[in-house]
Amino acid sequence: MTTINLTVNGKQLSATAEPRTHLADYLRDCHNLTGTHIGCEHGVCGACTLLVDGVPTRSCITFAVTCEHAHVTTIEGLDDDEIATELRAAFKREHALQCGYCTPGMMVSARDVVLRMESPSEHDIRVAMSGNLCRCTGYVGIVRAVQSVIEARRKRGAGAIPDGNRKLLGPAGSGHSSAVAANGAKPRETSATKAAASVAAAPARADANWTPQTTFVQSFTVEHPVDQVWEFFGRIGEVATCLPGASLDGEPVDGHAEGRIKVKVGPISAEFQGVADVSRDDATRTGTISGAGKDQRSNSATRGLIGYAVKQGDRPEQTRVDVTVGFTLTGMLAQFSRSGLVQDIANRLIAAFVQNLEAKLSAGEGAARAVAAEFDAGSLFTSVIIGRIKALFASVFRRR
């Protein structure tokens, strides 16, 4: 059993349920909110539709546990809602309900149409409401009711809200959608929305309690004096251009940088947008980079901590750089984070970085800043696998 905490119809509610419990069952069985009706239990009929963070959601196919800390509005929570009040009167006037079983979900979807669509035609309303099935009315009264409310509100100057204030993609309740409360106002931020926003806006502060999933240590040398290399590492924008796929959104401010890195793994093309905080110690020639990023398309997120030390090499004109990398990768791309493959990929990525670094140092500050290409991890994985197969065959034939 899992404790699930939700804000339902403006009240904070908590109850225990099995992780497999759907949101509709959770609301009906745990909180006696039986206005949400369950029909097909396949997300087809629309009878169970309610609002999760302001977005119409099929509660029969949404796990309650995935909506932790979300704002849920059921049909009971729309009693005092302006649009819902007008729709109830219109439904009664246009004879838009008979048995009433589909009505709760129909009302929620109709409210969303009134909220989003400026001046829809009858066809537009039928398409928008096609996800809600009715076995009684033939839909004529329902369409007339919705259309009459829209026309009345537009005449009063109550315009539509484009896309219902939805600015981000993502599953309802996951913190990626733009929330709209039942009264049309934006509700307070939940922990999920704050976490999503922190990737794009907040500094990537170091957390002593954070433990990376994968850690590896790597060293490389460059044929340039240590003072020159250390000074170059202080120019964050220049360093970023040496990393394939990386770019910054403007110049860093007080060691804080915002940017992105493009990664391609087979058919998956991701663009991690994130932030990083950079600190340096001139006395010891060491530095740290703490960063976090998120790819909206694959819903993958990463967090990492890089520590580096710039040291004198074996020769006066040579510099050694020791790098320690720790990171955590979640989401669709996490399947590619196995430590053995990551180490091989890191070796190739660092080799490309060193090659670009050498070119930059040799050309000096006047060198043109070439746009870094997308990091194609797919081709690197292929080379890694081919290399391992060759090594396997070599070891077999050596035994013979």
UniProtKB/TrEMBL annotation:
PROSITE patterns: 2FE2S_FER_1, 2FE2S_FER_2
Domain 2Fe-2S ferredoxin-type, chain residue ranges per copy: 2-78
Residue span of region Disordered: 160-189
Superkingdom assignment: Bacteria
GO function terms (MF aspect): 2 iron, 2 sulfur cluster binding; metal ion binding; oxidoreductase activity
Database matches in Pfam families: COXG, Fer2, Fer2_2
Keyword terms: 2Fe-2S, Iron, Iron-sulfur, Metal-binding, Oxidoreductase
Protein name: 2Fe-2S iron-sulfur cluster binding domain-containing protein
Lineage, uppermost ranks: Bacteria, Pseudomonadati, Pseudomonadota, Alphaproteobacteria, Hyphomicrobiales
